[in-house]
Amino acid sequence: MSTPALEQNRKKAILLIHQGKKLFMGGKTYEIKQQGFLLMKQGCIELNQYSKEEPQEDYKSLAKQKTYQYYCELEQMKQYLLSKVEFAKDQQNIIQDKNLKNQNQIIENQNQRINIDNIIIKEKLNVFWEDIAGLEQAKQSLKEAVILPLQHPNLFQGTLKPWTGILLYGPPGTGKTFLAKACATESHGTTFISVSSADLISKYSGESEKSIKELFQLARSKKPSIIFIDEVDSLASDRESSGSSDNLKGVKNQLLIEFQGIGSNNDQVLILGATNLPWAIDSAIRRRFEQRIYIPLPDYKGRFYLIQNQLRKTPNCLTLDQMKELANKLDGYSGSDINNLIRDASLEQLRILQKATHFKRVQIQNQMKYTVCSASDPQAEKITMKSIEKGQIFVPEILYDDFLAVLPKCKPSVSKGDLEKYEDWTQQFGQKG
Ligand SMILES: Nc1ncnc2c1ncn2[C@@H]1O[C@H](COP(=O)(O)OP(=O)(O)OP(=O)(O)O)[C@@H](O)[C@H]1O
Ligand SMILES: [Mg+2]
C-alpha cells in the first residue's frame, strides 16, 4: 500500500508537472517557457522516482504510464525550445538555480488555503464539443447535465432532475480533462470552477476541510455552477486504504458532507470528477457520482478524426488514404499519444534542417527562401541553419514518411492489462462513454 510519504511525493511531482506545463503553455517569453520546461522536468524525475518506490501494482503501473506520457510531452517542449533559439548554457544554469528556489516557493504557496481567484475559470478555454473525437455518450451526458437544464429549466421539474455528479474515468490521455474544458467553453452563463487535489490538500491540519467547504459555498453562491475536480481519487480514496493519513480522511469526509448537500442546497451545482483510478474511490463517494462514464482509448473513427483535426492545423502532404492508414496503425494509442506522435512527426523536418549542411535559394510566393539541398546540387551553398536569417528558411510540409520515421519510438502509453481493469470496473460500476 502507498504510504502517506510516498503519496506526498507523488502529489509534489504532479504539482511540479502541472505548474511547469501551465508556465510553458501560457508563457509569453522564451525564458518563461524554459522555466516551465525545467519545472516539468523536475516533476517527471520525481514522478519516475515515485513509480519505482510505489509498492502497489495499480499505482506503480499508472505512474509509469504517466511518467512516459509526460516525458514525451517534455521531449516536445525541448524540441520546441531548441527550434526557437540555441540558448547560451550559462543562462540556462542561472535559470535552473532560480527555478529550484522557485519550486519550493510554488509548493509552499499551493499548500496554503485555496485561492478562490485562481480556481474560477474566467478566460475562454476554446475547446468545443466538435473538437472531441468520439465519446458520444460522455458528450451526451454532459450536455444533459449542463446545457439542457440551463437552456430549458422548465423541462427539469418533478422527478426529472439533472445529473448532479458525473465521474469520467479511463486511461491517461483519453480526453477527460479535455471534455471538462469543452464543458466550460460550452456552458455559457455557468460558473466553472476547476480544482485539482493539489489545490485542496494542505499540509496544515483542518485547512483542507475548510478549503473544500469554501469551494462548495462558492459554487452555491454562483450557481449554476460546475465544480470540476481533476484526479478526484487523490481526495476520495478508499477509506480502508492504509495509505490514507488522518488529514486525507478529514478531506474525504468533508467532501462527502458537501457532496450530499447536508444542510445546504446543491441544486444547479454539478460535480464533475476525473480519474485514472476509479477503483480507488471510496464507495460512498462513488455512489454520489450518479453517472460514471468510461472514457476509453479512441476507436478507428476517433483516431481518424483526431489525425484529420490535428493535421488541419499543420501544413502537410498526407492524402486521405494515408491518414486512414495511419489511423489503422495507431490502434491502442490514446488521444494524447496521437497528438504527441503528430507533434513529433512535425518536428522531423526541423530536425532535417538542423542537421543540414547545404542550402539553396528558391523563390516561394514571391520571396527568396533557403531550402535544404544535397551537396551535389549546382546551386548548393555550404551553410548551416544558424547562419541563415530568421524567416528566410523554408520549412517543408510534413510527409507521411515523417510519421513512419517517428512511429517506432512513439509507443502507446497504455497497456492491454490496464485496459482490462477499466473494462472490468465498467462492467461492475460504469457505463461506456
Ligand atoms: N477524444 C479526444 N478528442 C480530442 N482530443 C483528445 C481526445 N483525447 C485526447 N485528446 C488530446 O489529448 C490531450 C490530453 O487529453 P486530456 O488531458 O484530456 O487527457 P486525460 O484523459 O485528462 O488524461 P489524464 O488521465 O492523464 O489526466 C488533449 O489536450 C487533447 O488534445
Ligand atoms: Mg486529465
UniProtKB/TrEMBL annotation:
Highest taxon, organism lineage: Eukaryota
Protein name: AAA+ ATPase domain-containing protein
Pfam families reported for this sequence: AAA, AAA_lid_3, Vps4_C
Domain AAA+ ATPase: 162-299
GO cellular component: cytoplasm; endosome
Family label: Belongs to the AAA ATPase family.
Keywords in alphabetical order: ATP-binding, Nucleotide-binding
Molecular function per GO: ATP binding; ATP hydrolysis activity
InterPro entries: AAA+_ATPase, AAA_lid_3, ATPase_AAA_core, ATPase_AAA_CS, MT-severing_AAA_ATPase, P-loop_NTPase, Spast_Vps4_C
Stretches assigned to coiled coil: none
GO BP terms: endosomal transport; ubiquitin-dependent protein catabolic process via the multivesicular body sorting pathway; ubiquitin-independent protein catabolic process via the multivesicular body sorting pathway; vacuole organization
UniProt source species: Paramecium tetraurelia
